[in-house]
Amino acid sequence: QVQLVESGGGLVQAGGSLRLSCAASGGIFEINAMGWYRQTPGKQRELVATITSGGSTNYADSVKGRFTISRDNAKNKVSLQMNSLKPEDTAVYYCHYRELWVGGAVYWGQGTQVTVSS
């Protein structure tokens, strides 16, 4: 079992910045990907950004150039720096952990609300 504890989020005005963090603990598999997805009411959960334990990153087109994902492998921690926030970034953000092997386990955090006012 892997536990994911999220921090950060909140309310910010458009153009502002927020930082999300997520710490993983428990049965961590060395080769993994961690990252963030987001969801708004009535819509499917969508990728925001992920980063592998090897440092490879993947971003949604909508956040490229504004969001930066980083991780500390020693602490099993991933962070998402969100700059130039827009009202359409408003969502519940979920931390995600996935073991990078066929059939590897997937875990989700409890979610943290990000609200961007116009």
Q: How is this structure best described in words?
A:
With 118 residues, the protein is mainly beta. Helix content is 0%, strand content 58%. It has strands spanning 2-8, 10-13, 18-26, 32-39, 46-52, 57-59, 67-72, 77-82, 91-99, 106-108, 112-117. Strands 2, 4, 5, 6, 9, 10 and 11 form a seven-stranded mixed sheet that branches. A four-stranded antiparallel sheet has the order 1-3-8-7, with no helix packed on it. The model has no long low-confidence stretch (mean pLDDT 96).
Radius of gyration computed on alpha carbons? 14 Å
Helix content: under 10%
Shape: globular
Low-confidence stretches: none
| Mean pLDDT over the residues | 96
Helix-strand makeup class: mainly beta
How widely separated are the two ends?
40 Å
Main sheet record: 7 strands, mixed
N-to-C series of helices and strands: EEEEEEEEEEE
- In terms of DSSP E residues, the strand content is over 45%
Number of helices: 0
Task: Give a count of the beta strands, DSSP E runs of length 2 or more.
Answer: 11
